[in-house]
Amino acid sequence: FRDRKLIAHIIPFENRRQILVTHDVTESERIDMMRRDFIANASHELRTPLTVINGFLEIASMQADLDNQTRNMHLKLMTEQGERMQRLVEDMLTLTRLESVDYPPRPERINMLGLLEQILQEAHALSAGKHTITLECTGPDIRGSNDEIRSALTNLVTNAIRYTPENGHIKISWIDTEQGPKFAVQDDGIGISTEHISRLTERFYRVDKSRSRETQGTGLGLAIVKHVLLRHKANLLIESTPDVGSKFCVQFPGTIVSA
Ligand code: ADP
Predict the structure, then answer these.
(1) What's the ipTM?
(2) In whole angstroms, what separates CA 231 from the centre of its chain?
(3) Which residues form the Histidine kinase domain (predicted)?
């Protein structure tokens, strides 16, 4: 019991005897702490854009004679902050839904080639010609939730683009292995040092906060990936070297293949 937290109650029993009842509250305290951390982080993340928007609204209400150029710049900055709040709230709702036992994934046949070709198109649009992106797709179709798998794989590809400087290379692959089908996205971007790797799927964990914000990150992407993969019994493997690049692999179980 050395690492456990126990709460004991003494209950009177017959003939002046007493019963000692103990409850192990270690797990519920850990969940409580995680919940408090999440609320604190989420509030902090929402407060920053709100402060910016409120600041510009105050300027607008005090200075009615703002020139058009300044006014348009303020409107643009407020719109960006509003969009940031929207992304955050959407990611928080997605995470809540993924964690809920009331919404188990609805398995359907996923056309992996079709899905990956769409993800590739979106990747080209996001990269705007600044990266070379390739796709190799020889793996089978699988059974799972199309929306959830799409969102997990899109998150991994989007990160590869966002954390790879211009002229970088991004290789997406979907192949079959002895253990089951495997997705991988490899980049030659900024990389991640070893001490961060095991913490990347924690909510709001970022190696470099300012870079994540600049690239429109919410800090929840890999937490969403982790939960989708848990629901599909798949594993995430991360290999990375700073200044060389990263490889994010998703190993699906052999049983997930669609007949
Ligand atoms: P964010 O919205 O900040 O990108 P994520 O949960 O998607 O949040 O990722 C968490 C952190 O992991 C990022 O802030 C970044 O530091 C790091 N990261 C994720 N993918 C990569 C990558 N391909 N290359 C380098 N760093 C990455």
Answers:
(1) 0.98
(2) 14
(3) 41-256
Pocket of ligand 1 (CB under 6 A): 155, 159-160, 163, 187, 189-192, 200, 205-208, 212, 217-223, 246
Residue ID of nearest Cα to ligand 1 atom 23: 160
Q: How confident is the model over 117-158, as pLDDT tens digits?
A: 999 999 999 999 999 999 999 999 999 999 999 999 999 999
Of ligand 1's atoms, which has the minimum distance to the CA of residue 245? Answer: 24
Angle CA 180–181–183, to nearest 5: 140
Instruction: Give the mutation target among 91, 151, 156, 163 for probing the ligand 1 site: most ligand atoms within 8 A of CB.
Output: 163
Tokens found for residue 118: 């769409």
Q: What is the pTM of this model?
A: 0.87
Torsion of CA 118, 119, 125, 126, to 10 degrees: 160
pLDDT tens for 90-122 read 999 999 999 887 888 889 999 999 999 999 999
What's the N-to-C CA distance of the chain in angstroms?
48
C-alpha closest to that of 158 among 225, 95, 204, 232: 225
